[in-house]
Amino acid sequence: MQQNQDIECIWNPGRPTKYHSGLVEDLVRKRAIGWSNVMISASWGISENTFYSWARDNQEFGDVQEFSKTLYQAWWEEKGYKMVTGQEKGDFKTWISHMNKHHGWAGTNPNISTGDTIHIGNMNVLSVSHDEIKKKLADLMERNGALNISDLKVKLLDNDKQ
Predict the structure, then answer these.
(1) Residues 6 or more apart from 86 whose CB is under 8 A from it?
(2) Beta carbons within 8 Å of 47's beta carbon, 6+ residues apart
(3) CA–CA dist 147, 40 (Å, integer)
(4) Does the N terminus or the C terminus of the chain have fewer Cβ atoms within 10 A?
């Protein structure tokens, strides 16, 4: 058994980084045309983890990456606007799915109607009293041969009292 063996420690930090300041401008350019972090990372030949490490370890890159989120979302919102206004054709389901996944649209709006309750607080639909709404609803039902208003369970929510 040998005593006092010298142990050589070799540290290999891996490949040299691909990061350089020119990537900051490329990041802004690509985010402004709707590219995701994954697409940008792939175009640079790096992993998404490396992308986020650069954002954490390089202040300029991190600051620009944070700002570029606005450019990215603006591009996608403009795409939706152009589809709605008929300036472009597109698939709304795909667009909405993208917005839900990448821009936090899913599950964040408390005014989205689910189940049996319709929330109209932000719609500015009517500026009439609950009694007037019930009367108009009863008139419509009567004209269309529907059930009597008393047969329909209607609960009008007053946002001011909630």
Answers:
(1) none
(2) 41
(3) 59
(4) N
Do 89 and 120 have their domain in common?
A: no
Q: Residue 3 domain-assigned? A: no
pLDDT at 105: 77
pLDDT digits (tens, 9 = 90+) for 108-152: 555 554 555 555 555 555 456 667 777 776 776 666 665 555 555
Average pLDDT over every residue of 65-72: 92
Let me know: does 134 contact 154? Beta carbons within 8 Å. Answer: yes
98-115 mean pLDDT: 66
Q: Residue 87's domain spans which residues?
A: 22-103
Q: Residue 47 pLDDT more than 80?
A: yes
User: Which CA distances in Å does 104 have to 18, 19, 33, 53?
Assistant: 31, 29, 19, 23
**Structural tokens at position 60:** 């300029």
- Can you tell me the distance from the alpha carbon of 151 to that of 153, in angstroms, rounded to the nearest whole number? 7
The C-alpha atoms of residue 73 and residue 102 are separated, in whole angstroms, by 8
Examine residue 55 and state whether it is found in any structural domain, yes or no: yes
Q: Specify the number of domains making up the chain.
A: 2
29 in the same domain as 54: yes
